[in-house]
Each structure stands twice: as C-alpha cells, then as structure tokens.
Design a protein that fits this description.
Strand order of the largest sheet: 3-2-1-4-5-7-6
Number of strands: 7
Pfam families: Methyltransf_11 (PF08241)
CATH topology: Rossmann fold
Radius of gyration: 16 Å
Largest sheet: 7 strands, mixed
Organism: Paenibacillus donghaensis
Number of helices: 9
Order of helices and strands: HHHEHEHHEEHEHHEE
Shape: globular
Helix content: 40-55%
Bound molecules: S-adenosylmethionine
CATH architecture: 3-Layer(aba) Sandwich
Protein name: SAM-dependent methyltransferase
Low-confidence stretches: none
Keywords: Methyltransferase, Transferase
GO molecular function: sterol 24-C-methyltransferase activity
CATH superfamily: Vaccinia Virus protein VP39
Length: 196
C-alpha cells in the first residue's frame, strides 16, 4: 500500500499510534471548516447534540462551548477516535456533560428522536450508504431538529462516486423526510443543513 492509501485508510478509520497522531492533526486542520459550518446553524438549547465521526473530539469540545444547557454526545466507529475524544473532553466526560461511544452511522446506538442537533464534519464521504445513513440520522433527530453535514469539496469529489451534486443530495435529504434543505458553499467547502 502506498503512503497516500495508508493515510486515507487512517483518515477513514484511525488506528494505533499513527491514527492517534492523525486525529490530533485533524483537530487543528479542520478548525476553519468547522467554524464556517457551525455558523450556519443554531444549536438548540435543552436538547442533546450529537457529533458523528467525532475523530479527535475537538468538535464535541466546541459544541459544549456553543451551548450552555445541552448535553453533547460523540460517536465514531474507531476505538482510537473514541479514546482520543474522551481525553480531549476529560472534565466534561467526568461531569456527565459529554458522552462518547463507539458506533456506526448506519446503526446509531441511540433511541429515536433523542437529539435536537446532529453534526458531521469531514466524515460523510466515508459512509457506507449515504441515503440509508441520512435516514438513520433522521430517526434520532427530534421534530424541529437540525442535521449539519460539512466537508471539503475536493474530498467529496475524491472519495464519492455518487451524491456529489447538490440536487442529488437535496433530494436524498427530502426522501429521508427532511422538510427543508439548505446548501452552503464557498470555493473550498460545502455544507448541507437539513431541518426535520
Ligand atoms: C477525517 S476524520 C474527521 C474527524 C472529525 N469529524 C473532524 O472534523 O476532525 C473522519 C472520522 O469519521 C469516522 N468515520 C468514518 N466512517 C464512519 C462510520 N461509518 N461510522 C462512524 N464513524 C465513521 C472515522 O473513524 C474518523 O474518526
């Protein structure tokens, strides 16, 4: 496997020492896109927030600062990511404000309608079945809840064979049940916001 393939595999499912280093780098590298994307939504107070594909846990930390009264959850199928996210949010995990667990976006380990807001940054291009996965997120969102998916455009085009066009993604959100979809874009980044 060439080096690039190895780095992509680590981005998709961080493991071991290299994975730990990678997700710590991602915490810094994804800061600007996360700031841009999180500004597109209003985090609902008094309603739990979920970050899917939470990686190194920086977005969880940021979400705890954006809301005073909502608990924040993180989920990732990488054990390394879960451990790093817990370390990054140690005090909030100890106080019970933050919960991080291992799980797959296609079968989220949460009851239906639990969350007011769900975020996913730089991860959806790795997901196994985007239409099914968006439906699964719709299931765990409460009525009036918001889903935000954000990613770099070149990564969307590099990793995805389908669902790279705005109209396709909009339709996919509507098919999942979302009543409204917004798409924001600049020259580098794109985000989809679905309102349940
Ligand atoms: C490129 S990292 C981004 C991490 C973080 N969201 C950020 O912005 O820095 C992608 C993360 O998505 C996770 N991931 C990829 N596919 C997933 C899936 N099907 N279910 C859950 N997590 C997944 C990976 O384990 C990895 O931690």
């Amino acid at each position: 496997m060439v080096l690039l393939d190895k780095l992509i595999a680590q981005g998709k499912n961080p493991r071991g020492f290299v994975g730990r280093v990678m997700i710590r780098i991602m915490n810094r590298a994804h800061s600007a896109i996360t700031t841009w994307a999180f500004n597109k939504i209003v985090i609902r107070e008094n309603s739990p927030v979920l970050d899917i594909g939470c990686g190194g846990g920086e977005n969880i930390h940021r979400l705890t600062k954006m809301t005073a009264r909502s608990d924040v959850y993180g989920v990732d199928y990488s054990q390394q990511a879960v451990e790093t996210s817990i370390l990054r949010n140690k005090e909030e995990v100890q106080s019970g404000r933050v919960t991080v667990c291992r799980g797959e976006v296609s079968a989220l380990p949460f009851e239906s309608e639990k969350f007011g807001t769900v975020t996913a940054v730089q991860t959806h291009y790795f997901w196994p079945d985007l239409p099914g996965d968006v439906k699964e997120i719709y299931r765990v969102l409460g009525k009036g809840g918001t889903l935000l998916i954000a990613a770099e455009i070149y990564k969307i085009n590099y990793h995805m064979n389908n669902h790279t066009e705005d109209q396709q993604v909009k339709q996919l959100f509507l098919d999942a049940g979302f009543r409204a979809v917004e798409i924001h874009q600049n020259k580098s980044w794109r985000c989809y916001v679905g309102l349940k």
